[in-house]
What does this fold into?
Amino acid sequence: MGTTSFLKRAQALLRIQNKLARECLAELLAVFVLILIVLGSSAQMVTSFGTKGDTFTTYLAGALGLMVSIYTAVGVSGAHLNPAFSFAMCLLEQFPWWKFPIYVAVQISGAFIAAGAVYVLYYDAIQHYSNGTLTVSGPRETASIFATYPADYLSLANGFLDQVMGTALLIVGILAILDTRNKGVPKGLEPVAVALLVLSIELSMGSNCGCPINPARDFGPRLFTYVAGWGTEVFRWVEGRG
It folds into this structure.
């Protein structure tokens, strides 16, 4: 009885009463889970010289990570996970505008923290692969583990179109999946449908820019690489790429 009473008191003390605080923590955790899996799969592929993963496995891991992250937070925060989705919900008047900057900050923070976790987890592998030199370009670059970079042939205009089209397709697809007027996905399987949608976008639109289709997924880890020692080049459109 004493132990049970103590646990109940501890739960009461740890319970977060503020609704916005619960939403922010859920969103932070969900984005952390998503980016941890996305970047972890990329780090495994790159640092193993492609022997323990390839482009398809990274896309598959990202889709499955998205599914898990949605299940993690959808009941509390709605599992936006993406500033573009939060923005779309505001435009459709399904999400208050005053929460938008808060959600964006939380999403970017979750991605930044996850990038740090992957860096620590794969620190030895990254140092070994890069010979101790953190670079954005070259045969042993490691910046692409964390953020997406354009293909050598891609112009700035084409890169912009690539991301607008991919993100728009993502938002339209999610809205269609969630629209109760459509033939609905079996209840509880919506995250699976969204994961398959993302996998299809990555498999069909991934070659130009790596298909981030999520500003938080790209900016948070990119900001981390700047802080961690890759330098300001992480924010530049590399010469010869448009």
